[in-house]
Amino acid sequence: MPVTRTQVGIVGAGPAGLMLGHLLHLRGIDSVIVENRSREHVIDRVRAGVLEQGTVDLMTAAGVAQRLHREGMRHGGIGIAFGGNRHRIALAELTAGRAITIYGQNEVVKDLIDARLETGRPVYFEVDRVGVHDLTTAQPKLRFHHGGDAHEVTCDVVAGCDGFHGICRTAIPATHLRVYERDYPFGWLGVLASAPPTSDELVYSLHDRGFALFSMRSPSITRLYLQCAPDENAEDWSDDRIWAELTARLSTSDGWAPAVGPILQKGVTGMRSFVAEPMRYGRLFLAGDAAHIVPPTGAKGLNLAMADVYRLAEAIAEHSTSVREDALDAYSDRGLRRTWRAQRFSWWMTSMLHRSESDNAFDRRRQLAELDYLVGSRAAMTSLAENYVGVPFD
Ligand code: FAD
Ligand code: PHB
User: Fold this and answer.
1) ω before 278 within 30° of 0 (cis)?
2) Lesser CB count within 10 Å: N end or C end of the chain?
3) DSSP tag of 258
4) How does pLDDT run across 268-305, given as a tens digit for each residue?
5) CA 118 – CA 112 distance, rounded (Å)
6) How many Å lie between the centroid of ligand 2 and the Cα of residue 203?
């Protein structure tokens, strides 16, 4: 079995793993990235679309934002619809000019893979039997099979960037991990449609029939979501049924409605809040979905992953030059502070905008009162805006 050495072994080539590899490269730190899916699969997965200002700033500083600046759509506001009316929250005006940018996660991943390949540093796709070993020693190891051959990589640090279903978090003994969790009694049916966006900005809507979200990917592609049952089969939703439901839940009294067009892709995502503490075990550091999951209503998942790897790259760089442990020691606590802030916000957006079967008439009126207060109070809108655009990475 070939035994090689690197400074950082990275499990997972999602946004967290790829960005970490790139940030380390910029500091002259070597890494090996292993990913169990194919390159095409990783690029084709349609997921998040909202980049916080901090994510855009990080990608720009890292030199991987050329296409993002050309094709991304900068939005200075979002719409909130309820009771048949649409209200605007002026994100940029309320946050001294901070904004969000719409750019698909798959585009981010494509750009980061291109950047990785250009560096010539290793990234292995379609690996299997990935394992992390000797985590509490100074030489943790990554083992995997690629193209039928077994590999072992000796590292200084292992980064678990392998998402919620990965192997890194589960390699930590249960006695060293505390897990906080909440499942929601609904999911999202996500739809990609060949239809020009009829609004320049996103619209989050609460309707008696449940939540709906209007988003986009380009001047000709709309991205839409509908609240549904968590175990719903997307195939039970015909195109006609999807459009009838989206039109009913999103249309507002000013005559606005999404444009109807061919549906290119559809899928159901469950919703959960999840945090594993601490984000470290010995020389294994968890980043992104491997450590925490938020329901997508606050558009925070991808952005939290980027904030994690920004901090982790800084800590590894400090450790590699000074051999000091302080920054590595601080990684988890600093990350958890940001994570809990995003957890609270994502939970709040989710409960404000979804209908639950356990809600009674009081809950429904309280929910409308919350929305009414939100769109009528500059203080409430500012609170939403500063969380939605995201606090600067620290
Ligand atoms: P991931 O993107 O999950 O990347 C982890 C990578 O590790 C994957 O490529 C995986 O194949 C790989 N991997 C897993 N196990 C192994 C292994 N054993 N060995 C090697 N590699 C492994 N967020 C939003 O903000 N808005 C959304 O609309 C939204 N929609 C989502 C829809 C779905 C179906 C999912 C799952 C997530 C969604 N998210 C959304 C969340 C957002 O996409 C994630 O927060 C983001 O992908 C986190 O990036 P990551 O790199 O931490 O994890
Ligand atoms: C998306 O465009 O995919 C999107 C936008 C906002 C969210 C979640 C997903 O809150």
Assistant:
1) yes
2) N
3) P
4) 999 999 999 999 999 999 999 999 999 999 999 999 99
5) 10
6) 10
**Would the pTM of this model clear 0.85, i.e. be above it?**
yes
Q: How far apart are CA 372 and CA 82, in angstroms?
A: 9
In degrees and rounded to multiples of 5, residue 178 shows phi and psi of -115, 130
Nearest to residue 55, comparing CAs of 288, 241, 263, 354? 288
Ligand 1 atom closest to Cα of residue 18: 51
Mark whether 185 is an active-site residue.
no
Indicate if 266 belongs to the active site. no
Distance 97 CA to ligand 2 centre (A): 21
Q: Take residue 141 and report the two structure tokens written for it.
A: 């190891």
Q: What angle do CA 154, 42, 121 make, to 5 degrees?
A: 35
Atom 53 (ligand 1): residue with closest C-alpha? 163
Number of neighbouring beta carbons within 10 Å of residue 278:
17
**Ligand 1 atom with the shortest distance to the CA of 12:** 7
141 is catalytic: no
Q: Which of 358, 348, 370, 356 is nearest to 83 (CA)?
A: 370
156 within ligand 1 shell (Cβ under 6 A)? no
Query: Looking up tokens 């209503």, which residue turns up?
Result: 297
388 is catalytic: yes
